[in-house]
Amino acid sequence: MLWLALGPFHAMENQVLVIRIKIPNSGAVDWTVHSGPQLLFRDVLDVIGQVLPEATTTAFEYEDEDGDRITVRSDEEMKAMLSYYYSTVMEQQVNGQLIEPLQIFPRACKPPGERNIHGLKVNTRAGPSQHDSPVVSDSRPSNSLKKSSAELRKILANGQMNEQDIRYRDTLGHGNGGTVYKAYHVPSGKILAVKVILLDITLELQKQIMSELEILYKCDSSYIIGFYGAFFVENRISICTEFMDGGSLDVYRKIPEHVLGRIAIAVVKGLTYLWSLKILHRDVKPSNMLVNTRGQVKLCDFGVSTQLVNSIAKTYVGTNAYMAPERISGEQYGIHSDVWSLGISFMELALGRFPYPQPLQLLQCIVDEDSPVLPVGEFSEPFVHFITQCMRKQPKERPAPEDLMGHPFIMQFNDGNATVVSMWVCRALEERRSQQGPP
Ligand code: ATP
Ligand code: MG
Prior knowledge:
Elements: H1 2-6, H2 8-11, E1 17-22, E2 28-33, H3 41-51, E3 57-63, E4 69-72, H4 75-94, E5 102-108, E6 134-137, H5 144-157, E7 166-174, E8 178-185, E9 190-198, H6 203-213, H7 215-218, E10 227-233, E11 236-242, H8 257-276, E12 289-291, E13 297-299, H9 306-315, H10 325-328, H11 335-351, H12 364-368, H13 381-390, H14 401-406, H15 408-411, H16 419-436
Helix pairs in contact: 8-11, 11-13
Bound molecules: adenosine-5'-triphosphate and magnesium ion (MG).
């Protein structure tokens, strides 16, 4: 079948899409669209304008599997929504359920101060002629979509991942340990990121790694990458996780402070969550911080399996420049060492370059020299203070988890606003795409 090779988005291309526009305090209007994947953001706004002529709608929202509202303000975010919706349709098909319409919630115009901070313009053209007219329907509340997602997670968590069900697509990147692929999981219709690591180890060690990875099934935080399962085939392990369409932070250019603050709060929450489970991350760095077009930020590649870390270390070449001084000196590793790596990572993301002179031939200079400091004039005082505290040479002087969360730099961004990161990721992806030219 064609869709197995091309993925859910293409598979749905010829299908009719029903968008259920929810009207505040009353029913809903069903709109049948015949060219779903080509649908533009402004087309949706136009139809909302017909349904709700009194209101000036500049954006709308949809709900993810956890019931969280995600805002859509651009074509890029539309694509993310449609791709999410089509994957839920796949799930419903796989589970033999009725296909739910795509529910959207129009959002009225915000006061001018808050609106359009990034200068995005909404092009309000005449009504979309290529689409069918909206039809009023009764809107029965339904949560079967959420249920099926939860069921799927359970199926996936039961260790039913295997090589036969996975179609590897693009290579997302190479690391020291292995290669990460974007892949399609046939039974669930989900897009995954699969990390494949070559490991020449005994069956006994393979079993130990698998049991050490078990704890990942229990990790349940929106700031930690979702884990779907792992399996060994011959001398390689495949670790299947949630795919993040914005990739990792190391490939982004200098990140503005107001965006970085929102990323920092997610990273601090993710680390605090891991620490609460007595897990040290041990590899905090920009390439292990992932983002998506929904504005989510999640941590990956934390060291839950000692055996896996040890086995990779045997073939590991190169240096980990994000390591805390005490770790370089071979002293005890603790939460404070993760905090150092957090500090140096955010300093790099803010400056757009690694803070120590490159190439860093000797990690010893991290031990011997004073820590670098962010230039005060360029960054806010709380941000400079935050980084300086995280990068104190003495581990005990660095902030404890509760001090990180309570730090003024972090506190000011604790507003649950995913829009800033979402817009910034969408912009950066669009820029990257336009630089690459047509495929
Ligand atoms: P190292 O091996 O030293 O930790 P690394 O983190 O860059 O380096 P990998 O963990 O192998 O190496 O990841 C390679 C790249 O794959 C990452 O830089 C990231 O861009 C991409 N990647 C990893 N996981 C995901 C994911 N879940 N979704 C999307 N992209 C991912
Ligand atoms: Mg990594």
